[in-house]
């Protein structure tokens, strides 16, 4: 996909399509590290939220997976609710000589609600409780320095725009 290591920090609200885009980039050769997946491996039900005290270990495991990857492109998929969270990953990449790119999947509430209702029928999807979803939405700050993709665009178009930005 590119010369030299790159960390793509993929951000957006729940149900915007982060996992779908991450999997499409994986098909292009990227390694994908999903914090939700790590939390599930650790025995947490994402639907109910993860205790704040547990996040440092999840982050540590994500860092280890990124560092162990031999791929030229690593996609870190997580809501990344605030700029401070995203800056932490930029700093992580810079400290390891990696380039970084924040990719924001922007979606309006109607699209998010529609996707959430469809996801209820999908056995491999976790559905956040209303309380957790509202908490995430309240905390989320759209990034100001990012490649912005519309969640309503096709995955193919999103992949093309990400790879063009590399």
Task: List the keywords.
166 residues, alpha/beta, five-stranded parallel β-sheet
**What's the helical proportion of residues?**
40-55%
H and E string: EHEHHEHEHHEH
Rg from C-alpha positions? 15 Å
Mean pLDDT: 87
Stretches where pLDDT falls below 50 for ≥5 residues? none
Strand order of the largest sheet: 2-3-1-4-5
Shape: globular
Biggest beta sheet summary: 5 strands, parallel
Judged by helices, strands and strand pairing, the structural class is alpha/beta
Description:
It is globular, with a radius of gyration of 15 Å. The longest helix is centred in the middle third of the chain and has 14 residues, at 55-68. The protein has helices spanning 18-27, 35-41, 55-68, 83-95, 109-119, 130-139, 155-165; strands at residues 6-11, 31-34, 73-77, 99-106, 147-150. Helix 1 crosses helix 7 (155-165). Helix content is 46%, strand content 16%. The chain has a five-stranded parallel sheet, with helices on both faces. It is an alpha/beta fold and 166 residues long.
Short description:
This protein is an alpha/beta fold.
List the helices and strands and how they pair.
Layout: E1 6-11, H1 18-27, E2 31-34, H2 35-41, H3 55-68, E3 73-77, H4 83-95, E4 99-106, H5 109-119, H6 130-139, E5 147-150, H7 155-165
Parallel strand pairs: 1-3, 1-4, 2-3, 4-5
